[in-house]
């Protein structure tokens, strides 16, 4: 891989379905278009990207056309590509729209309404410190999330170093796209089949995880094998807003409450 750039291109995923809205609210065309504090969630995440010196260009994967994105809160979007039916399809078209194929690009979930530029910049800086890999995925310690947003639900996993959840920030070299797309497709179809999932990750990895002995380096190696030999790194972020994904009405109402307080 070429040297890590001072600033990266960012892919903002604003598609996907969100039907668990409070009664009386109209379902928008994409998850990132659900409003929190008067703005679409993706527009709030966009603000964090635009204000970060670590981001040089923003590609928005959108369920609506560029002609419809006329509101001033979309200023800062440099390119718009249509969202796919599935998350992995949106990921793929977003990565394919990257201009600099010699440098890594960041993928950002559009349902991070509390995301800040500080969290974005810190994540890219931490990725830059691991130039020996091709894929960087964000994660967070449970105590960090609880300290920032007590009681917000996450899917947690216990590793030897502690309890972690995923974050909504991800970085990848464009050259790794083919392996990533295949692995993500396989993972999508295997997620409800323990046998297939174990085959993808490796039985030793699964057993170590069940026993609570799986380490972060071992998890990185397992992800690398699943991604077709792509070298991976887990990037532990200290910013709780990087993992405040709005996946249901409970999280949505909590996000709206927090923005009222801020």
Summarize the structure.
The chain has helices at 41-51, 87-96, 117-128, 142-148, 177-190, 194-201, 203-210, 216-226, 249-261; strands spanning 8-13, 35-36, 39-40, 55-62, 79-82, 105-109, 135-141, 157-159, 162-172, 232-236. The protein is α/β, with parallel strands linked by helices and 262 residues long.
Structure description:
- With 262 residues, the protein is α/β, with parallel strands linked by helices.
- The chain contains nine helices and ten strands.
- It has helices spanning 41-51, 87-96, 117-128, 142-148, 177-190, 194-201, 203-210, 216-226, 249-261; strands at residues 8-13, 35-36, 39-40, 55-62, 79-82, 105-109, 135-141, 157-159, 162-172, 232-236.
- The strands form two sheets. Strands 1, 4, 5, 6, 7, 8, 9 and 10 form an eight-stranded mixed beta sheet that branches. Strands 2-3 form a two-stranded antiparallel ribbon.
- Strand 2 and strand 3 form a beta hairpin.
- It is globular.
- The model has no long low-confidence stretch (mean pLDDT 87).
Percent strand equals 15-25%
Alpha-beta classification: alpha/beta
User: What is the count of helical runs?
Assistant: 9
DSSP E strands, number: 10
Q: In whole angstroms, how far apart are the ends?
A: 41 Å
Rounded mean pLDDT score: 87
Which value, in Å, is the CA radius of gyration?
A: 18 Å
Which spans have pLDDT < 50 for at least 5 consecutive residues? none
Query: What level of helicity do the residues show?
Result: 25-40%
The SSE order reads EEEHEEHEHEHEEHHHHEH
Shape: globular
Sketch the major β-sheet: 8 strands, mixed
């Amino acid at each position: 891989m070429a040297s890590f750039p001072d600033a990266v291109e960012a892919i903002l995923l604003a598609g996907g379905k969100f039907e668990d809205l409070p009664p009386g609210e109209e379902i928008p065309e994409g998850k990132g278009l659900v409003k929190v504090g008067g703005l679409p969630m993706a527009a709030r995440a966009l603000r964090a990207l635009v204000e970060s010196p670590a981001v040089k260009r923003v590609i928005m994967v959108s369920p609506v056309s560029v002609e419809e994105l006329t509101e001033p809160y979309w200023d800062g979007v440099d390119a718009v590509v249509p969202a796919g039916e599935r998350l992995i399809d949106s990921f793929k078209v977003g990565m394919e729209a990257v201009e600099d194929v010699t440098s890594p690009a960041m993928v950002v979930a559009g349902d991070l309404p509390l995301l800040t530029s500080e969290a974005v910049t810190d994540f890219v800086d931490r990725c830059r410190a691991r130039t020996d890999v091709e894929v960087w995925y964000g994660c967070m310690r449970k105590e960090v999330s609880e300290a920032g947003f007590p009681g917000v639900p996450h899917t947690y996993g216990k590793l030897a170093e502690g309890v972690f959840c995923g974050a909504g920030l991800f970085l990848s070299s464009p050259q790794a796209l083919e392996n990533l797309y295949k692995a993500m497709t396989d993972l999508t179809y295997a997620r409800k089949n323990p046998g297939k999932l174990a085959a993808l990750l490796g039985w030793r990895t699964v057993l170590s995880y069940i026993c609570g002995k799986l380490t972060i380096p071992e998890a990185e190696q397992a992800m690398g094998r699943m991604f077709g030999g792509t070298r991976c790194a887990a990037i532990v972020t200290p910013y709780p807003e990087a993992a405040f994904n709005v996946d249901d009405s409970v999280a949505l109402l909590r996000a709206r409450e927090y923005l009222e307080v801020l």
